[in-house]
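User: Could you go from structure to sequence for me? I need the amino acid at each position, not a summary. Structure tokens:
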């Protein structure tokens, strides 16, 4: 079954000799029913521009266009994929722009008109770095409304993890401070060509109008980084480099100095960041 009048993806890959390259983190999703399903998980696309990173032969690109995206901007590093993507652009005049280049080096905003959604089967080797960039813009709220992104399932679990779980850490706190984050799809290795060794999952993140709790982003990042860099240590030891009176700051935030990082929820990490930002804690 096809979602458009273009050839099946296996034919496209054969015609353009698009064997996936491990060095580029490529694992192609060839089932157009699945790519359309992922596009639907992004929400209504009819009045949105969509940024897609790493479209490869264009399976998700076709899904986004079939689901009514106003305009898709696809950023692709692999020049072998460009002819296949141009074929899609010709079938959807004016609705697909393809840029050749590294997503880590390109500012796509000049090519996008708000409202903007980001939807991508991210290359495994740059997925987490791109997510962190999107979660840490200079100002909030960001230019995008939602992120619908495929990751290795282990990374998806780290994004959506709750306190007390093994996956809970910096990525969960960073994502959940400013977003609603949930896993909306699971995909087995055999859904991809070539099949990766791990399962994948699609995470949907919706930007909140403002962070859940007030905190200076730079201070919060320092606190969380120090806490989880030595997650086996009690916080009074892991955070001692942040302030000489760190135990007073911990108590002021409702945290026992003997607690460990994975026990502390987002609200208390933000309270600790606020306490540290104000200077010496009051021990009274």
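Assistant: Here is the amino acid at each position, in order:
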């Amino acid at each position: 079954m096809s979602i458009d009048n273009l050839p099946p993806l296996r034919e496209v890959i054969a015609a353009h000799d698009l064997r996936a390259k491990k060095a580029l983190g490529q694992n192609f999703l060839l089932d157009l029913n699945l790519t359309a399903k992922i596009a639907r998980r992004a929400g209504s696309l009819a009045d949105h521009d969509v940024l897609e990173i790493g479209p490869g032969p264009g399976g998700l690109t076709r899904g986004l266009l079939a689901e009514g995206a106003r305009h898709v901007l696809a950023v692709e590093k692999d020049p072998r994929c460009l002819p296949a993507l141009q074929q899609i652009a010709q079938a959807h005049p004016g609705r697909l722009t393809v840029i050749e280049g590294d997503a880590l080096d390109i500012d796509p905003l000049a090519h996008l008109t708000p409202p903007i959604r980001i939807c991508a089967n991210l290359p495994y080797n740059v997925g987490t770095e791109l997510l962190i960039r999107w979660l840490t813009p200079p100002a909030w709220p960001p230019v995008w409304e939602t992120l619908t992104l495929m990751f290795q399932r282990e990374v998806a679990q780290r994004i959506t993890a709750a306190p007390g779980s093994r996956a809970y850490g910096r990525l969960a706190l960073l994502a959940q401070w400013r977003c609603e984050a949930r896993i909306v799809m699971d995909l087995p290795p055999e859904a991809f060509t070539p099949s990766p060794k791990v399962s994948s999952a699609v995470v949907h993140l919706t930007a909140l109008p403002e962070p859940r709790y007030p905190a200076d982003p730079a201070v919060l990042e320092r606190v969380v980084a120090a806490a989880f860099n030595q997650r086996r240590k009690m916080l009074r030891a892991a955070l001692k480099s942040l302030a000489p009176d760190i135990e007073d700051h911990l108590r002021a935030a409702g945290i026992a100095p003997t607690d460990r990082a994975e026990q502390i929820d987002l609200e208390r990490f933000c309270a600790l960041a606020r306490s540290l930002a104000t200077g010496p804690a009051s021990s009274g």
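One structural detail worth keeping in mind: The chain has eleven helices and nine strands.
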